């Protein structure tokens, strides 16, 4: 008994320290309403198109969403790697189609905010958005989602947004979020990498190690989707430069070059450069402007010179070569279809 007495308080101290560590593990919400909206497609996107919106437990969320090449799978891997607990709220998505009906958007948005408010104490939120959602009466559904989450959670609440490469990024969404990250690659081979990057930055934010600031610059141009393949000129060297900046400059947290989505008839349609730094707004502005200038410098190389459909058929019929492929070129075939237009 005499030998055991001094051990007991040490054991209690160790248990208390472990319990405290478990309690202070940051809890990060995951939320998102994702849609790529073709403004020219007449069929609207309804609430039913978004499918099930059942709230999953954290365990079910990890089991169903982990191990994939998605931003959310990247969040999950990043949370495990960087010591975060994820709390799923509303995560919904629909296949590309026409603009989202306003009642559908309002229903989903109200449920997202309700779940965020009802959650256990949260330290931040990771927002998985597409970046090209158009809603009836709203030019940017994504910016409105971020604005309402910011309003609900408060001015100092950490919000990190991830976007598709085909995002039409508005200045509003950059203002309402702490960090915005877009895919670097088209075709999209890096969503998980971007989700992991978002989780790492979030871990640094909630532990007080990072103070992100970001800036956006939009060159006055349309980057036709025909030229948006990132594994060749003219985009390849610009994408490589975004990776180099992240790799070589510890002050730079994220560099995003979005190609934009030309089938959304909105004021902020087109390419964007968003740079997030660790508390260095001048660096963010300078590098965003420099990469935007690189995009602008390619403008004479992205002039579209293609025949219309009737002329393409005439050329094919007159040619002695075989075979000919007549392609409806564009993301989701440029018409909101599933690939059978």
SSE blueprint and pairings:
Elements: H1 7-23, E1 27-34, H2 58-65, H3 71-82, E2 85-93, H4 102-118, E3 124-128, H5 141-153, E4 159-163, H6 171-176, E5 179-182, H7 191-206, E6 212-217, H8 236-248, E7 252-258, E8 272-278, H9 281-296, H10 309-318
Parallel strand pairs: 1-2, 1-3, 3-4, 4-5
Antiparallel strand pairs: 6-8, 7-8
Mean pLDDT: 91
Low-confidence stretches: 1-22
- What letter string, H or E per element, gives the SSE order? HEHHEHEHEHEHEHEEHH
Helix content: 25-40%
User: Main sheet, how many strands, which sense, barrel?
Assistant: 5 strands, parallel
> SS-based structural class?
alpha/beta
Count all strands and give the number: 8
């Amino acid at each position: 008994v005499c030998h055991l007495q001094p051990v007991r308080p040490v054991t209690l101290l160790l248990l208390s320290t472990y319990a405290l560590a478990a309690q202070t593990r940051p809890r990060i919400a995951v939320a998102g309403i994702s849609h790529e909206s073709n403004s020219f497609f007449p069929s609207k996107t309804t609430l039913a198109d978004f499918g099930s919106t059942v709230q999953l437990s954290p365990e079910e969320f990890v089991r169903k969403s982990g191990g994939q090449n998605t931003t959310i799978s990247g969040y999950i891997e990043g949370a495990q790697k960087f010591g975060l607990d994820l709390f799923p709220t509303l995560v919904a998505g629909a296949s590309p189609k026409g603009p989202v009906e306003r009642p559908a958007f309002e229903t989903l948005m109200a449920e997202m905010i309700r779940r965020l408010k009802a959650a256990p104490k949260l330290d931040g939120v990771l927002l998985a958005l597409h970046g090209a959602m158009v809603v009836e009466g709203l030019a940017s559904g994504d910016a409105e989602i971020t604005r309402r989450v910011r309003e609900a959670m408060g001015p100092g609440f950490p919000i990190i947004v991830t976007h598709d490469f085909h995002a039409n990024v508005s200045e509003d969404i950059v203002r309402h979020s702490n960090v915005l990250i877009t895919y670097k690659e088209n075709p999209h081979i890096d969503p998980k990498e971007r989700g992991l990057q978002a989780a790492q930055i979030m871990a640094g934010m909630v532990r007080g190690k990072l103070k992100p600031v970001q800036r956006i610059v939009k060159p006055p141009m349309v980057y036709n989707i025909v030229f948006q393949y990132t594994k060749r000129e003219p985009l390849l060297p610009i994408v490589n430069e975004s990776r180099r900046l992240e790799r070589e400059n510890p002050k730079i947290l994220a560099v995003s070059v979005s190609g934009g989505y030309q089938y959304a008839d909105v004021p902020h349609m087109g390419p964007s450069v968003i740079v997030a730094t660790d508390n260095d707004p001048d660096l963010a502005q300078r590098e965003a402007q420099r990469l935007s200038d690189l995009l602008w410098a390619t403008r004479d190389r992205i002039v579209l010179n293609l025949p219309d459909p009737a002329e393409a058929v005439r050329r094919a019929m007159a040619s002695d070569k075989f075979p000919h492929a007549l392609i409806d070129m564009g993301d989701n075939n440029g018409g909101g279809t599933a690939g059978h237009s």
